[in-house]
Amino acid sequence: MRCAIATLAAALVVIADAGLAETPDATNVPDLSRRELVVGVKEAPPFSMKGVNGNWHGISIDLWHHIAEQLHLRYRLVEVPNVEGLIDGVATRKFDVAVAALSVTAARARIIDFTQPFYGTGLGIAVPAGGEPSWLTVVRTLTSFSLAQAVLALVGLALVAGSLVWIFERRDNEDFGGGATKGLTTGVWWSTVAMTQRQAGSIHPRTVPGRFVAIVWMVVSIVAIAVFTATVTSALTIKHLQGAVHGVNDLRMVRVGAVTGTSTEEALLRLRIRYRKFATPEDGLKALRAHSTDAFVYDKSILAWIVQNSFSSSIVLIDTTFDPQQYAFAVPRDSSFGRALNVAVLDAIHSEWWRQTIFRYFGSG
């Protein structure tokens, strides 16, 4: 009996141990301190920046340092010039982790894995400070579809007024007689001259209905011309002061710049917005400052940082954000320490340390 009980107890212990071994545990992670990790980085202020002494800092870099300290990791940083280098390095397992300002996208997630996101952002639009050059503003306003609509509306009103005057005057006023073609053209000519407050010589309505239409038309035309003039003047002033770009839809009508190989390209292609490619955001902003482009699209957080530090007198960001994105660390597919990094990222971004870090770089939580 005692032997049977002992055998049963031993079996229960074995089963319990097996169950525990199969149960996931956040602390049951590989010993990452056994080897030196290779961490890919690239400059993307304020998330990753290289100091004059070669030391790296920034929001993403500080987060990585914090996590590495918590997990007792040994690592070395390897710099690459662009985002493609980071993605390819992780996909080919040249890098164990990529740390910068990497947006989580479907295309990238097909070849690499991402940790839990640590920062939410979106795309921003930079434009020249002070709006467009005067000549460009005039040309774009005069060739705009809205101006064409206003002109057609005025022409339509003149046609209606001229036709009504001809209908009432064609039998009693020889100036509007002589057949439909001559009479109608005379009526439209008179209404156009009256609208512009010009003298039409001896041509004028003589019947009571015709004069009534003329009075109404003169009042209406004064108001219409005033509204038209005010609208054009306002459009010219606003575009000169603020520029032609006020939102995403305006990008389809101007010259746009973007950094090649970034998620910005994917967003612009999806929106069917044509753009000019630049190697770095600094190159794109220099072209914008020189008025070679009309707008530059990039990650808004990084864009704001660069503009504030290097282009504050010549470039501004408009108050709009589109195509929401999230930043995360990149790791190879099925990485052995991906779960450990996920837990560490979540712990870090929900801590007081993270709030202080964000405040240090952006001045807000």
CATH architecture of the largest domain: 3-Layer(aba) Sandwich
Shape: rod-shaped
Determine the mean pLDDT: 82
Q: What's the structural domain tally? A: 3
Q: What is the H level of CATH, i.e. the homologous superfamily of the largest domain?
A: Periplasmic binding protein-like II
**Range of helix content:** 40-55%
Q: Could you list the spans in which at least 5 consecutive residues all have pLDDT below 50? A: 1-29
Structural class, judged by helices and strands? alpha/beta
What is the number of helical segments per DSSP (H or I, 4+ residues)?
Answer: 13
**How many extended strands?**
13
CATH fold type of the largest domain: D-Maltodextrin-Binding Protein, domain 2
Text of the CATH class of the largest domain: Alpha Beta
Beta content comes to 5-15%
The succession of helices and strands, N to C, reads: HEEEHEHEHEEHHHHEHEHEHEEEHH
Short account of what is shown:
50% of the residues lie in helices and 15% in strands. Helix 6 packs across helix 7 (180-195) and helix 6 (145-169) runs antiparallel to helix 8. The radius of gyration is 35 Å and the shape is rod-shaped.
Explain the overall architecture:
The chain is of the alpha/beta class. The protein has three domains: 26-118 and 328-362, Periplasmic binding protein-like II (D-Maltodextrin-Binding Protein, domain 2, 3-Layer(aba) Sandwich); 127-131 and 245-324, D-Maltodextrin-Binding Protein, domain 2, CATH 3.40.190.10; 136-242, Helix Hairpins, CATH 1.10.287. Helices cover 50% and strands 15% of the residues. The protein contains 13 helices and 13 strands. It has helices spanning 2-22, 59-71, 83-91, 106-109, 134-142, 145-169, 180-195, 208-242, 263-270, 281-289, 300-310, 338-349, 352-362; strands at residues 36-41, 49-50, 56-57, 74-79, 97-99, 113-114, 119-128, 256-259, 276-278, 295-299, 315-317, 322-327, 330-331. The strands form four sheets. Strands 7, 8, 9, 10, 11 and 12 form a six-stranded mixed sheet that branches. It has a three-stranded parallel sheet with strand order 4-1-5, with helices on both faces. Helix 9 links the parallel strand 8 and strand 9. The protein is rod-shaped and about 105 Å long. The two termini are 68 Å apart.
